[in-house]
Structure formats: C-alpha cells, structure tokens
C-alpha cells in the first residue's frame, strides 16, 4: 500500500526467485502485508530459471544439516502442491549406475547416507534391472541405486505459480526494482530503500541469492561472501534418438556431484551441469571447454548421447557461499531481519519448506501470523492448447478464435496462450517471460519464426513501441526501432 | 470438425507449393487446395525484396515478390483454392488426411487423393553451432532479421556482424547497409564462400564489407544486448587459433549458418527421411516413400536458386495429379548413389522408364575446377558433362536417359586429367 508516496508493508522479501516466491506464498496465508522486490522484469530470479529442474529427495545431503532437513521435508510436499498450483511435475525417479568396480563398492555408503537422511525408499538395482529401465545406459554398468521420489518439474512455472498465487492472496510484487539500502532504527528494521521508492516495513527477508551478501552488507551482516558457481547445460531436441526416462546421475566423487542426463518435463533431454567457481557474479557464458567436459563425462553414463541434437546451451550461477553451507540467520541486535545464504542446487526443491520455516521463524520473532480465512490455495495455469482433447480445442477456438492461430510452430503454441501469459496476474512483460510461461521460442528453431511475431504481440498488447520490448531485463532491447 | 475434400492437397504456399499447384491443375487435377499458415501466399519470397530471381526459369531478373506473384496469379487464375492462416498439425499419409487449424473453421480435416509436402526449411540457430559466450538480445538468424526489416518495417540494429556467408546473410549485409547500418564483417569458417559468388560481388564487394574466410566467432559478449564478438582465424581442422583473436564491437549478430528442411510432419507421418538432406527421400517424380505423398522445394533439400525449386515442384504437381487420377504406375525402383566428391543426390530413387530423362540435382563435397561429371549404371557411363568449376554452395545437375537405367546409378565428379 502507498501512503504519501511511501510504501508501507509488514514484510519485504528481497528476491523473487523460487525461495522468495515460496516464502511470499506461505506468508500470503496470513493476515499481514507482504511485498516482494526484485531487480529483474519477471519473477523467476536468476538461479531459479537455469538449473537442472529436479525436485530432490535429499538422499545425498549432509545428514543433520538444515539443508538436509529442508530438502527431505520438501520432497513429499510436491505431489499435493503441484496439484494446487497446476505445475507440470513428474516423479521419474533417479538411477545411479555404478560403471566401475570402484563405484560399485561405493553404493553401500551412499545407501547408508540416504538412510541417515531418512530417505528409506532407496534401493539397489542389478545390472539387468538398470538396463531394462534405461536401455541406453553404458553396458559396462555393474549395478546401482534407484531413488524413486527424485522428480522433475517445470522450474519456471513453479516460481510463476507460487508468485501468482501469492499475488492473488494479496502479496504485492515490485519488479524492475533494485534495493539500494536498508534503514534501521534502535536495532530494528525500519525501511527498505529501492529504485522505486522507500518501503516502510518491520521485517526484511533477504532472499537475494547471488546478491545476498551485498544486501547483508547494507545492514552490516556480511560475514560471508557469495561465490558464483557456474553450471553449464545442454538441452537436446525432443526428437533426439538417445533418450532416458529417469534422472541418470553419476556416482559422486569427492570433488563434484558430477554431470547428469535427465528428461525435462516437456520431453527434451537435459545434460549437464559443469561446476566452475567464478570470480564474478555476472558471467553466464557458455564455454567450449565447459560444454566439451559435459559431453565427455555424460558419455561415460550414456555412451550414445547425441549432442548434435542440441537446441540450446545455457548456464546458471549457483549462489554458493564462503564459508560453505546453507544458512538462515536472525540476529539479536537487528530485530526483523532474516538472512538466507548458501541456497544452492537444492534451492528449487527446498523453496517450499523454506517458506514454512521462515514463517515459523517470523512467528518466533514477534510477527503476528493470523491465518486468513479467505486464503485461496489453488491457482490455474495457462491452458495448453496442444494438450487439450480435439473437442476442447474446437470449443476454445469457437470461444476465442485466437486459439486457432499458431504462433510458435515448433512447440505448437497459439496466440490465445500468449495473450493469457501477458494478461494474467504478474503477466509476461518480455520475450523471455513469454517463453518461460508458454514455451514460445523454446523449440528447435529457438524463436526464429515466432520471435518477430511475439515481438509484435507484446508491443501491441502492452501498448509500447517495438523498441521498448525487451528480451528480458532493461537494456535488452530486441530492435532499434521502426525504419520509417 | 470442419471437413474438406480435394484431389491434391499442398502443404505450404511458397514458391514450391505454388508451382506444384499450377502444374497439378495443368495436368488435370480437379480440386487443388493449398494450405498456408501465413495470411498471404508466396512464402519466404515475400520478404526477399531483392532482385536475382527467375534468371534461369524466366530469363529475366525479378524480385522475390514478383517471382512468387507470377505463380500466385497463375495458380489463382487456374482455380487453385487456398486455405489461409491454417497450420497443419498432422498428416496421415496412408489415409490422405490432413488435420489443420485456423481461426475461422477451427479444427479442419482435409481429405485428399494425393498430398504434396512443400513446407520449406528453417534456419540453423546459434545453438546448433554452439557459439560460446553470453545470451544477450540482438542475435538473429538472417531470415528472422529479414522478416523484421522487410515485412515488419523494424530495424534490428545499427552495428552488425554476420556469421556465415550463406546467401541470406550476404543479402542482409547489403540490406542493412542500405538502411544505414554499419556491417562490420561477414565471417565464414570455411575457406570458401557458402553462398553464390554473384551475391558476394553485389552484396559485399560493392558495399566494401569485409569477408573473413577461414574465420569464426569464438565468443559473444554482452549482458543485456550484444556488445561485441571475438573473431579468430581457424586452422585446417577448423579450430580457432587463439593468438589471432580480435574484438569487434557491435550491437547485432546475424547468423547465416545453414538451413534445415522442416520435416516434423513428414517424420510423424512415417515417411522415409534422408540422413544427409534431412528431407524425405524421393524418386524422379518427387514421390516419397509413401506413394500418395509427394514433396518439393526446400522441404526435400535446400536449394540455392528458386528456379530449381520451380522445376522440381512442377514435377511434383504433375505426378501428384496423375497419382490422384490413378494414372501413375508403381514399379520397382533403383537408387542413386554418391561417388567421388558428391555429397548427396536428389532424387534418391529412380523408377526405370522406357523413355524420357531424369535430372539429378546434387552437391559436391569440396570446391574443384575443370571437372567431369559422370553418371554410371552397371559400370557403363549413361551421361557425362564437363564443368569449369564446382562449389558446395552451388547446386549441380546432370540429366540421365531413363531408358538406360536398369540398376543403381552412381554419380562422380572427377578432376579432368
């Protein structure tokens, strides 16, 4: 709410990634005012949109740590949550094949660790079982482990759904807005300064991930440094000849968890990631060396993986932390401030349990959380034309002829779906935001055909000149203007 | 479901589909229907506003819209029907059914006696060739940029580097220059031009645009919008030589790195596709592995001249009409096989016949000069001709007498002694 040009709220969440949006959605169950601030033009953060899109079980976490507790708690929340929020999700299960004798001998220790993390449904697989489950696996496989509840999800839609549902339950989102400072008074949080103005608030939750140390420094709590750990990935065409149906993970070494191959929820293959510590927080390049290392490593698991079928390569930056480990900190000398740091690969998974955890923490620190009787727990996603029955397709075109106009031919996406993406709560404002909502431009031509059309649709629907349509954040203009 | 019936249904109203439609009507097909996803016919030629089309077919230099316009007019005059703004979702080759949708009729089923695939091709992307670096705005395939500039009146950028010396890339180098943009370089990884020599002369040389052969882009720089690219020379194995890397500041990168026939429908219809061309295998009548389905134009193999597309498409239209009328006899076929310095041959199959000729289109693997092209059957030379120069970027062809074909045909391109 704005009073005299100053925003007033109870809680400010900095960062609209998976964790920020999950906390917002959790807090939207209660009778408090919540505001989410993010520098980007869309929800979905940075790391939340470029990861392996896996909902983990926590079988391999360090037992007893907060990270282990949150991941293990989060996994069983998903089957219900994805129904409530209409998020594409599939429990594919994961397979860890032991290719060498040395790896085979490691299996009991991995299983024992899973038990310590209370993942009791992990099971041994024989060589024959593995080959029956995944015919493309390296035939030298000696045996392995099966973790049935490891799952895949649409990470973009998860975050959008959490944000849309929070928004529908009263949470405000200030996008395209950078936090520039935090005001405190008498050891208490007073206000957040942003590029969009001042927000008076009693609580600040720092969920800024890659930039959480910079936010922490604003209140003198930066006793750690964020170290960006880059992960590069390949996405392969849906038609690629060599596919897997499970998440196929390597046996981890002391140095790295290694590179995996798994299906995406939309039927592509995902291969990667690398793990490279950077000396900056911005370099989301893909590199020849990085990509070559993925091929080399994954070929040990899946010898026939056909990298020539790649339709895109991308990289994401995991907000790793030095000293390492997931931390959720509150401070005796700074009332109302919650600092999240070291949320890494498991961040997507644990976002939803983190929401509950942070809500409880606020309660313990004096935030009066009274349940909202009218909390609406469900959210309907965009209706996907190509998933409808022939009859539904007929009906929806009759109702709205723009569903009869296919804009993205690779993914069969209609104009109707793109308009829904733009006009729904927290709707798409950029080319990438459209892509992450309805997949227009995510197919094999990578927007070559639909890009110019989506550009025109955005310009028309948002009533802005074409040169103001961005790929994503401010400055990423698509075209320099009309010619004449 | 809205139902339609026709003799010959053609998927795609570009130059291939239009020529096929004209030929089908002329061969006597009663109902010829073009299914077109755009709101107008002409296909990609609608955005090719430059001249250079029709030199061999019409002996006249036309622009893309003019060339397409001639066939569009002829097709419409001949009573060819067009279903506009209609996207085909599925082809059932065996039953002759096509499912498509559009805003007016909704889901539509077209039942045809024969089908011609004329969907064209798509451009290879940055990801196909795995250019390292960031992923900012300002990277376009040359054809997308051409659409934005020529059909949407939109300028894509001001300082441009073009990767790949394909024809569309060179055409866009000139087009962007004419619109006041600065084209800083055309970068080509091979040591020879990918497109037509005449395009290098008219589009690059005449505008003083540097062509960097044996060079590639090693990294894209820029967080929001392209800020520049690193360009390096490549060695004999096409690996960049690090020491030769130079930075070119630019705001736009256009890619002209090849075309891929668009055969998603073909694949789903279980029609045999060639691994080399990525298009359906056809015989000299442009008939695919499913006898009722024909294919022509860039959906079969990527052409450099639309004039050749017209020639092939006329055959497809003519024989699809004969098939629809029950007049095309099916016989045992032989195959065409690539010999020395031949990358692929289209058609891949030949149906032997007592008279007439078949024109084999093919591409060489490497450039060469003073060569002899030979087609052999059972060791016997059935056709041969001399060529001053051959180049992978320019399609070659040779005509063979069908009466002499009794087994597989091998084509060689041999250096003259």
What's this model, at a glance?
Chain A has 484 residues and is of the alpha+beta class. Chain A is built from 13 helices and 26 strands. Chain A is globular, with a radius of gyration of 23 Å.
What features would you describe in this structure?
The complex is a heterodimer of chains A (484) and B (417). In chain A, 29% of the residues lie in helices and 24% in strands. The longest helix of chain A has 18 residues, at 347-364. Chain A contains 13 helices and 26 strands. The model of chain A has no long low-confidence stretch (mean pLDDT 96). By secondary structure, chain B is α/β, with parallel strands linked by helices. Chain B contains 8 helices and 28 strands. The longest helix of chain B is centred in the C-terminal third of the chain and has 19 residues, at 306-324. Chain B is globular, with a radius of gyration of 22 Å. At the A-B interface, strand 21, helix 10, helix 13 and strand 26 of A face helix 3, helix 4 and strand 11 of B.
